[in-house]
User: Fold this.
Amino acid sequence: MIISASIISSNFLNLEKDLLDTQLAGVDWLHIDVMDGKFVPNITIGSFILPFCRKTVSLPLDVHLMIEEPEKHIKTFALAGADRISIHIENNSNVLRTIQEIRELGVKPGIVVNPGTPVSAIENVLPFVDLVLIMSVNPGFSGQKFIPQMVDKIKLLKSIFLQRNINAHIQVDGGINKHTISSVIQAGADVIVTATAIYKHSGGIVDGVNELRKAI
Assistant:
């Protein structure tokens, strides 16, 4: 099981320490949520943060672009150090071309589906991606409650993977904590994104990650 810690909930006044503690806690990837205030109702960080993360820790950088016209920005994120770049099916009419461009830049591509988007919308691009991210909250803000109906979507996607012999990660993001993590794992997910459960844990980052591992 891979845990990808979303730094959106980290303490940016002391980001270096939080990143080092995240690595010390045994997190597998760093998740970078990029929002533009248009595709989703919030604005977060851009590509400038990736080199700082790269200099501080050796964790793979898992970038999630929640922006309009992501195809115009993938090269910038690739050059900034992204190991993975995931884009939404909902905002890119030439999504396969963008996926191919991500791979040509030496980065692993992923495709994302919002809670209201059916799995059928991404079936044609599944052979071309390394990761499918199922949003278990409506994207835009950290700290939202997990939408339990997304468990069935994970199960459906996993069954398609098995039927078509697709070897890609199933990632889930949104409301993942010690209470919800087991249901998404049992449904077939193998990558978990979490922000609040790690960076807002009362015992600190290491305790937050340990609590998730115990729940797993």
User: Anything to note?
Assistant: DSSP finds eight helices and eight strands in the chain. The chain has one domain: 2-215. The chain has a mean pLDDT of 95.
